[in-house]
Each structure stands twice: as C-alpha cells, then as structure tokens.
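Input chain follows. Return structure tokens only.
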Amino acid sequence: MDPLIQNILTAEGLSAEQYYIAVLDGSSCPTTKDFLKQIAIIFKFPSYFGQNLNALNDCLSDLEWLDKPNYLLIIDNSKEFLKNEPGGIRDHIFNFLERIAREWAAVPNYEGEDSFRKKADFRIKII
C-alpha cells in the first residue's frame, strides 16, 4: 500500500477493508474541467457522468458501483488544486465536498432515501 495512504489510514484509525480510497492529485487539476475528469476516474463514475457540478453531485451521492461501505477522498498536492481558477471556485468545491460528506453521514436526509443508499462515512483529507 502507498505510504501516504497507509499514514492517513493509521492517523485516522481507518481500515482499508472498510473504505474505498480515492486519491486525487491536485497538481493534475488546475481547472474545474480537469477536476471533473479526474474525480470521475478515481471514483469510477459511470459513462453517463455529465462532467458538471450537478452530475458530480448526483454521482457522489450514489456510489453504488463501489465495493466498500465508506469512502475516503485524499486530495494530495492541494496547493496546486484549481490554481488556474478564480479564488472562490476552490473554496466552493471544498464546501461542496464537505456538504456531500455531511449528507452521507445524515442518511436518510429525506423520506425514502435509505431505500437506495445507506448511511456512510465520506471523509475528505486535504494534504
């Protein structure tokens, strides 16, 4: 296992058997378009992913195609992440991801939601 991942799992007290681990290299995501492409790859999004923030919300709120009950998103080289975008975009994306994490922790967020997804731990580690 990659030492970065192992160190994070150890520090957070997590088990690789219980978490789908997605590592996003911030240096490969200088723009929102690049970020959408990369996150689709690391989370193995279905081919219908529309490569926009609404579609990102839909896919990150589902994740039924992954084989683990919890999720860990590691953003490595975070200083490079979205460096070619205006200042507020980076904060907007981080806030968006934090909202996704809160929604996973609060399932069911609305009546009937627990029939298609179960409560999960969706963690974001920014390095």
